[in-house]
Automatic annotation (TrEMBL):
<dbReference type="GO" id="GO:0007229">
    <property type="term" value="P:integrin-mediated signaling pathway"/>
</dbReference>
<keyword id="KW-0106">Calcium</keyword>
<dbReference type="InterPro" id="IPR051433">
    <property type="entry name" value="CIBP"/>
</dbReference>
<dbReference type="InterPro" id="IPR011992">
    <property type="entry name" value="EF-hand-dom_pair"/>
</dbReference>
<dbReference type="GO" id="GO:0005509">
    <property type="term" value="F:calcium ion binding"/>
</dbReference>
<keyword id="KW-0479">Metal-binding</keyword>
<keyword id="KW-0677">Repeat</keyword>
<dbReference type="GO" id="GO:0000287">
    <property type="term" value="F:magnesium ion binding"/>
</dbReference>
<keyword id="KW-0460">Magnesium</keyword>
<dbReference type="InterPro" id="IPR002048">
    <property type="entry name" value="EF_hand_dom"/>
</dbReference>
<protein>
    <submittedName>
        <fullName>Calcium and integrin-binding family member 2</fullName>
    </submittedName>
</protein>
<dbReference type="InterPro" id="IPR018247">
    <property type="entry name" value="EF_Hand_1_Ca_BS"/>
</dbReference>
<keyword id="KW-0401">Integrin</keyword>
<feature type="domain" description="EF-hand">
    <location>
        <begin position="124"/>
        <end position="159"/>
    </location>
</feature>
Amino acid sequence: MGCRQNRFEESVLEDFEAATPFNRVEIYHAFDRFLELHQQYRLAASSNPDESFTAPGDRDYLDADGFINPEFSLPAEFIATHMPQLKENPFAKRMLDIFIATDSGQMTFIEFLDMVSTFSPKNSREKKTAHAFQIFDIDQDGLISREDMYVMLDMITDEPLNESVKKKVVDEVLIEVNKKDADGLNTEDFHYAISRSPDFAR
């Protein structure tokens, strides 16, 4: 990594290695992806006549000492619509929401790294499942309720489904996990459902 023009401070890299399943090469690869989004955003912002669309500086991701600033951020909405893995995902906004700690609408590199490492093949099924539960628990009440599932159906279908169709689909989901008469899925139920889907851990 010594030949890189832009580097993290050693202590920051150590923290990233401790908090994620990524090694240093993978951490820098994640940063390169974030930097590519930054460059795309600069181009979009600089060509937008709307003064509220502020173009960031070319190297404003560096701190005063010339190291990469891990708190450097980009608009979450831009990430959702320009990151290839997210822009076609109906749950992109939900994914970003659960990793962003503030209401600023901005995602820091720290939060971006947390997101991409969580859903990487190197991470455990347990951590992926825990975050997936948060994504699908729309109202964040600790239960993926029937209402949450109705919202998800609206998110993944091009045409609105009528209530009877949505109820039938949700009933079938609950029957599949032996919760026919339940109001929804708690974390234990969800873990059981995911255990029946081996592709989820990949």
